[in-house]
Amino acid sequence: MRKRLLTVLCLLICLGILGLGVAAFLASVSPWSLGYLLGLFLIFLGLVLAGRLRLVSAGGLALMVVLALARLAVVSPTVIVLPEGTPSRLGALIEERDVSLMATRWGGPLRIIPRPELPGVHKAMKAAYREMGAAYGLTASPVVDTVLARNGPERFDAVVFDAPGKPAGALIFLHGYTGNFTLNCFLAARAAREAGLMTVCPSAGFAGQWWEADGAATVEATLKWLEGRGIKRIVLGGLSNGANGASALAPGLEDRLSGLLLVSGGFADARSTRLPVLAIHGRRDTMVGIERTKRYLSQMGFGPWKRLIEVPEGHFALLVRREELGQEITRWLQLLH
Fold it and tell me: Model pTM?
């Protein structure tokens, strides 16, 4: 009876993997992820088969191991573990692009992402990942450690993009809800690089609650790591929940920062800051309304150093208008430094 139940369970898992494979194919995922899915399918298929055909499971496991070892050999070490600064091995195992494309392809039907936010996002995301690949090749991702809840103030993943030469300063860019993604860091880092800055994007768990004790301690550890490298001119920024956290933390860090960059977020009731502020927000944002950012800035008074850039986009404005907004960020950072 137990054997029969196990067989049925394995068959159901095989069917689930097949369905996931179809969804992945329709989302235009890479051969890496399709290969992992094939290996997983073969593992469970072998458990159903009899006799020597059970070796199919060994073949599936071997395929997954070969893919993992190949990625470890070729992936750029863009994700490091702070504060020690060692490369993240887990970060090299998956293709982040595929996670993101699955989310934007099926996030609407599954009600993970509001439908009004999705037009044009899937196409823009594919293009942005191609641009990152052209610049850096295969890149590591902090997604695995986020899923495994391995980040904390004493040990956390950070995506790091260096400046073209000796950095003139650094941008700390905080992630939003759903955790840290290399692509979001790349979008900010590409603009910062043009201004001579390196970029560090630390990880603070799935929810990205930077205003809580652990999140604030992670920002503090990131600041100390940069200051230990002799970098003193530091801009704090963030996307979505990361922008919320940056707006909350900035007033307490003013003596160590040179500016504040908020993208698609910011607490309306955060304390005012004397730092220069650049806020970017889409007028059609249904996830974090632009009125919150306007209220935050209005308490300090709009001006050359308290500036809001509005674009006719939704929550993914930085992705969809990455060239235009990247240039705006670069110009602002050059003025600061």
Answer: 0.94
